[in-house]
Q: What sequence folds into this?
């Protein structure tokens, strides 16, 4: 069997995944999607049932014990509807079979990516999956991550680096394709059914799954992991969000697991998707050490985790590198090949924080891929020193950046002031000069090309100092004391309009804030730029100890993941935004199963947010990647080239002749 | 015949010997030049008039470069929006203005047609040195020459303020310890040793993370508060030596109190050797500030600082002008202070003086 395919290596990242990325991006986006920093406190933002709009704190108590009815009763009472069980790699193959490459690989490799046409050619020619026998199955790929892992325990997953690595070592039942359509993955699942009332999901697992220590993976592992994730003593940074919408998870036998939902929601397909722990390893130890990392047993597991995915961790040098090796017992069980082996025998992750050092490593061939910053894309990767070993590609990605205005401060409580900020900012200078014309303007939380964005294309914001000044005057911020700075009487005291903008130390972001500072200075508003270390920034925004900040969010797999940014009192609603209409629309969107009707709700949310401007949306940061010329098979989704199915699994290296 | 040299006194003597070293004189002149540049920076490079007459009154908007609040409010009220050349003429045809030598701003890119007929500054990596941008522009289009001229203030302030603080603390601690001796000396010496153990860079990084609005003054205060140990030790040594000398004995016999003896009699005689570490301290403070800015922990943006220009260069080394000009400036400044320090040492040290003869 030469033909090898890897499904879903990195694709198991559902609703909670989105949420985590959000946080990560918010603070540390420049280098990589999220960095080590996000690991600090990715707080789960729980979405409570409809009746309880206000209380959105993370679950403090474990779910009430639940006595699941016998499977026979379920089968008798429920009308089961079959849901898709798919192979992400096969889907991609089908898609590619319908396309013809516009150029040969050699032609594409000789191209310089200096135009949209060249980019499309490179993507089409080099993004193809291998023909049988074409891939070098003994190859090693050197990848880049911008920060170390916080933990190797899959339920502690939170940052982008953890996604990259634990996505390859972890076990999961569900995934989604590059259009973010969810399915159960045929690597692990035989069948997936949902009850007609939307309250039950029944999954039958394959019987040829083993952990890296040789023990079988069963439905009991999944039910066990649910209880661990939902135990408030276990410091799960992100995965509990979404999982807490489940009423219970019960394993009826080794292969049959049923998910009981609290309510029939459109988002239930994401809530059933969480990482899985080996029950036989943790069941004896987790009660004694619910942190899952302090006891000697857990310290040992942290170093050498028992993995359920296609790769296992074989080497870990803190702050240096992490090496994964392909598990032969993933594809070959009891002497029989049961699923396709991944293309790479070894995946080595190099940890490099500084973007300039990373680029040097790519040019010297030390690493095989990296995210390029606009300046790097435009000025550092156009010469022979780059193209000798590498090529580069770009594709749309749903990661957007913004200024967030703390609505609980006297400055930004008024919508007119927030709109004035948007008018004051020189969007064109940012896009053209600072971002080298590579990023597209953003105007709201949902990407224009996504199904949930309004049909009417929004107009990109432009600088208009007259409008900005008029709005500020209207809101009462005029220069009363004649000192050149606008001010307003608040509680009998004249408050000058001077505020501080928190920003990550990444140069591009500081430059964007400095640009706003100069723009505001022109209309009598004083702003101080405060570059802040990433974890401090995260803490300050979470504690709402800020006046304004600059950050970004990565899009979730479902628009409902934005609920925890915009709903009243939600966990990531740092700016203190509250609008009953938005709350209601999210609630309705969750209960609506018709895609078109759902889209209307989210489009309306986008419009309301554009009117209210709790953020000044700045730009969409698309994917810009440098790849070694020896790599093939990169295909991009709105979540980048890795975090979907097959994602990283479609990358391969040709055999050396 | 020796009376003539004697009347010049110790300091005159030292100055005479200092003057014999051309490099040291050049260094002193260089630092003097920097002081001038720092004081005159808004008149050398800026986009606000040095002096202007507007609606019947005379203003100096350029002072805003020293403190933001010094910009006359009338220009904000009349919606100048920081753009003077056109607005002055349009809003008061009678007005006149004296402009800085170079119409460039250290904090922002000059916009197109801001100065009638001139295009916008080049940005990205296109801002090579040209007639308009003498030292080129950075990625955001800000003129490097303007940044460097205004950054001179910081380079000087950092050295003088931090070593002013360090000198005051060091001399006070060393004098008290050296003069009184006994347990007081024991105490001050131990404190000195403890402070010596504090890593300045780490402390600065920690403080910057903690305080609400970190400014360059915090950095200076920390460099000063940790950099006094060498000075204290030298002062203590001098005081130990001098307190036994005859003129101190004479002063004490005349009934002078300890404060008077320390300040009036010993300190002037102990000052020369103490000046040397202060001069070297200034050099290292300038370097430290540049390193901090280079690492991204310098004064908050968009404050112009030489080190921060170097930091901008890191992402694109092909923009050599971001490396060369601030690099040369830092090098020359540190070299100048070191030359001055060395010359001071040699021209005030009696033993070296004997050896030279």
A:
């Amino acid at each position: 069997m030469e033909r090898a395919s890897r499904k879903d290596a990195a694709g198991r990242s559902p609703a909670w995944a989105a949420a985590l990325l959000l946080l990560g991006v918010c603070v540390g986006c420049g280098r990589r999607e999220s960095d080590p920093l996000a690991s600090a406190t990715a707080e789960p933002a729980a979405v409570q049932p409809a009746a309880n709009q206000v209380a959105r704190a993370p679950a403090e108590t474990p779910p009430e014990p639940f006595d699941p009815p016998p499977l026979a009763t379920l089968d008798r009472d429920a009308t089961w509807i079959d849901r898709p069980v798919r192979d992400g790699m096969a889907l991609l193959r089908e898609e590619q079979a319908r396309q013809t490459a516009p150029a040969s690989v050699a032609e594409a490799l000789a191209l310089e990516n200096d135009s949209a046409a060249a980019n499309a050619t490179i993507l089409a020619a080099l993004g193809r999956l291998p023909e049988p026998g074409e891939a070098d199955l003994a190859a090693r790929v050197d990848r880049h991550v911008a920060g170390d892992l916080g933990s190797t325990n899959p339920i502690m997953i939170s940052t982008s680096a953890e996604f990259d690595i634990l996505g390859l070592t972890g076990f999961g039942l569900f995934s989604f394709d590059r259009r973010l359509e969810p399915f159960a993955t045929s690597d692990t699942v035989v069948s997936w059914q949902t009850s007609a009332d939307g309250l039950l999901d029944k999954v039958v697992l394959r019987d040829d799954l083993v952990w890296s220590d040789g023990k079988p993976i069963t439905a009991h592992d999944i039910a066990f992991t649910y209880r661990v994730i939902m135990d408030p003593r276990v410091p799960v940074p992100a995965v509990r969000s979404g999982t807490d919408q489940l009423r219970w998870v019960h394993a009826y036998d080794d292969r049959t697991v049923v998910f009981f939902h609290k309510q029939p929601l459109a988002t239930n397909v994401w809530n059933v998707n969480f990482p899985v722990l080996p029950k036989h390893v943790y069941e004896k130890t987790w009660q004694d050490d619910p942190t899952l990392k302090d006891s000697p047993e857990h310290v040992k597991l942290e170093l050498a985790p028992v993995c359920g995915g296609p790769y296992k961790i074989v080497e870990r040098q803190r702050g240096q590198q992490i090496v994964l090796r392909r598990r032969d017992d993933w594809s070959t069980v009891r002497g029989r090949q049961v699923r396709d082996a991944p293309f790479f025998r070894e995946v080595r992750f190099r940890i490099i924080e500084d973007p300039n050092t990373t680029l040097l490593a790519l040019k010297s061939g030390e690493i095989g891929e990296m995210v390029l910053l606009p300046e790097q894309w435009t000025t550092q990767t156009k010469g022979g020193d780059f193209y000798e070993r590498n090529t580069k590609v770009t594709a749309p990605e749903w990661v957007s950046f913004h200024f967030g205005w703390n609505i609980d401060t006297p400055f930004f409580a008024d919508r007119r002031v927030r709109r004035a900020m948007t008018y004051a900012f020189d969007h064109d200078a940012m896009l053209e000069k600072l971002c080298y014309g590579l990023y597209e303007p953003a105007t709201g939380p949902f990407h224009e090309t996504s199904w949930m964005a309004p049909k009417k294309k929004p107009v990109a914001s432009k600088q208009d100092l007259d409008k900005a000044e008029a709005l500020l005057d209207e809101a009462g911020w005029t220069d009363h004391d004649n000192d050149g700075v606008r001010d307003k009487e608040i509680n009998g005291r004249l408050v000058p309009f001077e505020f501080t903008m928190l920003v990550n130390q990444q140069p591009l972001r500081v430059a964007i804030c400095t640009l706003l500072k100069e723009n505001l200075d022109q209309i009598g508003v004083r702003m101080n730029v405060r570059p802040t270390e990433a974890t401090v920034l995260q803490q300050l925004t979470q504690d709402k100890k800020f006046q304004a900040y600059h950050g970004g969010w990565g899009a979730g797999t479902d628009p409902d993941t934005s609920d925890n940014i915009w709903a009243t009192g939600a966990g990531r609603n740092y700016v203190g935004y509250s609008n009953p209409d938005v709350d209601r629309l999210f609630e309705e969107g969750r209960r609506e199963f018709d895609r078109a009707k759902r889209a209307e709700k989210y489009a309306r949310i986008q419009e309301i947010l554009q009117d209210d401007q709790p953020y000044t949306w700045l730009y969409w940061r698309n994917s810009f990647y440098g790849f070694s010329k020896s790599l093939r098979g990169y295909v991009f989704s709105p979540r980048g080239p890795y975090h979907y199915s097959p994602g990283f699994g479609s990358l391969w290296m040709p055999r050396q002749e | 015949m020796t009376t003539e040299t004697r009347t010049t006194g110790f300091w005159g003597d030292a100055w005479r010997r200092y003057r014999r070293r051309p490099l040291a004189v050049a260094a002193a002149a260089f630092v003097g030049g920097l002081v001038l540049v720092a004081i005159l920076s808004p008149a050398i490079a800026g986009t606000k008039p040095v002096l202007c007459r507007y609606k019947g009154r005379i203003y100096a908007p350029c002072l805003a470069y020293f403190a933001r609040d010094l910009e006359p409010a009338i220009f904000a009220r009349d919606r100048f929006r920081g753009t003077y050349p056109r607005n002055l003429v349009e809003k008061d045809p009678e007005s006149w203005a004296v402009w800085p030598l170079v119409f460039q701003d250290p904090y922002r890119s000059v916009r197109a047609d801001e100065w009638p007929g001139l295009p916008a500054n080049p940005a990205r990596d296109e801002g090579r040195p040209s007639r308009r941008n003498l030292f080129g522009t950075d990625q955001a289009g800000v003129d490097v020459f303007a940044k460097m001229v205004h950054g001179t203030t910081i380079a000087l302030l950092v050295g003088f303020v931090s070593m002013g603080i360090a000198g005051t603390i060091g001399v006070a601690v060393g004098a008290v310890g050296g003069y009184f001796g006994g347990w007081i000396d024991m105490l001050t010496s131990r404190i000195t040793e403890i402070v010596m153990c504090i890593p300045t860079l780490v402390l600065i990084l920690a403080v910057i993370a903690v305080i609400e609005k970190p400014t360059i003054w915090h950095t200076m205060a920390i460099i000063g508060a940790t950099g006094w140990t060498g000075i204290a030790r030298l002062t203590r040594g001098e005081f130990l030596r001098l307190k036994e000398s005859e003129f101190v004995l004479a002063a004490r016999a005349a009934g002078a109190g300890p404060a008077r003896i320390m300040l009036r009699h010993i300190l002037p005689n102990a000052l020369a050797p103490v000046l040397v570490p202060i001069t070297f301290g200034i050099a290292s403070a300038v370097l430290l500030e540049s390193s901090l800015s280079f690492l991204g922990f310098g004064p908050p943006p968009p404050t112009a600082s030489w080190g921060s220009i170097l930091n901008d260069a890191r992402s694109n080394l092909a923009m050599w002008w971001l490396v060369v000009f601030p690099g040369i400036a830092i090098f020359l400044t540190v070299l100048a202070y070191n030359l001055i320090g060395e010359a001071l040492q040699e021209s005030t040290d009696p033993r070296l003086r004997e050896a030279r003869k």
About this structure: Chain B is about 65% helix and 5% strand. The interface with chain A takes residues 68-69, 71-73, 75-77, 79, 81-83, 107-109, 123-125, 139-141, 209, 212-214, 296, 300-302, 311-312, 314-316, 318 of chain B (CB under 8 Å). Chain B has two domains: 45-121, 145-356.
